[in-house]
Specification:
Layout lengths: L3 H36 L9 H10 L9 H19 L14 H8 L1 H14 L2 H32 L4 H7 L10 H17 L11 H4 L9 H26 L8 H4 L1 H28 L5 H28 L1
Helix pairs in contact: 1-2, 1-10, 1-12, 2-10, 3-5, 3-10, 5-6, 6-8, 6-13, 8-10, 8-13, 10-12
Length: about 325
């Protein structure tokens, strides 16, 4: 018999966490602009600027549409990135995580970007088409080393479950403390820089070249929805990194400490994703933008080679 009370409680918890994820994403948007401005010796906007921008855009009337695909693109992207978030263990709390979910997460991560690409392509703007081409090429480039590192972690921990990898790193046995995965974390961090579309891999948006590329035709509620997608993407991508290499931020056992463990683990998780994003912002602030061929060369010639060596290292370690 279905326990509707337990099911309703789980739905409420997931709704709360998703809302919290979007709120943190909006905070990160303002945080990024403020930190970048201070590095450039500017004052910058207030740290809550992300909230202002989203509410302002959703309050505007949208008069331009390029068809139903264009209209649904943002919704498609938001739904996709939200679904990815629900499969990620957050501070050790697993929402939809199950066996084999790492393969599913890698698959789902492509869905929001493809929805975005469909909407931008429907606009008919050549700058949008150039931006989408660059975005898909960049995604193809950084996914190769990222997938190899994740496969190495699945072999090492003998599980395809992200929650299982987080559980295996309990009691502060974080993967990043192992030499092989310290190198893997650096490889994955470079891939994360491309996922976040921060310099030197902000090639798809390149505002001084293609006028923000895929987003050039979006305005009003459409642009507000795409900003939400990008903001949640920051939380999702940094959380994936923390889950893989930093034990999901879990330092206290729920079985032993109860609700105190949830509170402490959440604060540690938030601190870690903020730190990971802060590192991405520092790189973004001091590096120039790569050309598309330079990005491909970096990921496939250097990042992928190191990832391959890590994969070989793990296979040799397991076989012996």
């Amino acid at each position: 018999m279905v326990d509707f009370f337990a099911l309703g409680e789980q739905i409420l918890v997931m709704a709360f966490l998703v809302t919290l994820g979007y709120a943190i994403g909006m905070f990160f948007n303002g945080f990024a602009r403020k930190i970048t401005a201070r590095i450039h010796n500017r004052v910058g906007p207030p740290i809550y600027q992300g909230y202002i921008d989203v509410f302002k855009l959703f309050g505007k009337k949208t008069n331009i549409s390029h068809g139903w695909i264009f209209d649904l693109a943002a919704l498609f992207s938001i739904a996709g990135i939200t679904l990815v978030f629900l499969f990620l263990p957050v501070a050790g709390f697993s929402m939809l995580s199950t066996d084999g979910d790492l393969f599913l997460i890698l698959y789902l991560l492509a869905i929001p970007a493809l929805g975005f690409a469909l909407g931008a392509g429907a606009s008919g703007n050549p700058n949008a088409a150039v931006g989408i081409m660059r975005a898909l090429m960049t995604m193809l480039a950084y996914e190769l080393p990222l997938v190899m590192v994740i496969v190495a972690m699945m072999v090492h921990y003998n599980t395809t479950s992200l929650a299982g990898i987080v559980a295996a790193q309990s009691n502060m046995h974080w993967a990043i403390f192992l030499p092989v995965f310290l190198i893997g974390a650096i490889v994955a961090d470079m891939a994360l820089q491309g996922m976040l579309m921060e310099k030197p891999f902000d090639i798809p948006i390149a505002p001084h070249e293609i006028a923000t590329g895929p987003m050039v035709e979006f305005g009003g509620k459409h642009l507000g929805a795409l900003m939400l997608y990008k903001m949640m993407g920051i939380v999702v991508e940094t959380t994936l990194f923390v889950d893989l290499f930093l034990g999901g931020g879990v330092i206290l056992s729920v079985a032993q400490y109860g609700w105190l463990a949830y509170v402490v683990n959440f604060l540690v998780w938030f601190g870690l994703i903020t730190f990971v994003f802060f590192l991405a912002l520092l790189i973004n602030a001091v590096f120039p933008r790569f050309r598309i061929e330079q990005a491909l060369k970096f990921y496939w010639k250097y990042d992928a080679l190191v990832a391959l060596l890590i994969l070989i290292w793990i296979f040799v370690e397991v076989s012996t």
